[in-house]
Specification:
Layout lengths: L9 H19 L5 H4 L7 E6 L2 E7 L8 E6 L3 E8 L17 E8 L4 E11 L2 E8 L14
Amino acid sequence: MRVTRWQPFAPAWDQLQSEVNNLFQRWGANGGNLSRAFAPTYPAVNVWEQGEEVFVEAELPGLDLQDLEIYVTGGNQLTLKGERKVPSTEQGVWHRQERGSGSFVRALTLPFAVDADKVEAHFENGVLMIKLARHENAKPRKINVKGE
């Protein structure tokens, strides 16, 4: 007589595991975009303040400069908008496609109001560097107190 251990959930667990594997194969292979669902916010940015200026650095590899727009709104809102086009493979077949493509919009709240007329942007080697000057109204002002 053969002795086996009773496993009441084994058939259901095996079926669930099989369905999850199928899902990942269907969406993650052959250029699927499952990886985009788990991707961090794009583009990745660094923001820091130095003196009377704030700096924003964004990684935008593979982006054409004519596909990028930068807006300053509301005094302290910076918006990066653009599109990274899908690379053409002619008659090739994708085996893996992990780099995202398509349109994006990234809005950042800056630590203080900036002067939209004093914004400098430079794009080199896939890195966008933006320098924004503090607006005069956002600069601290010393208030003279008068006495009697």
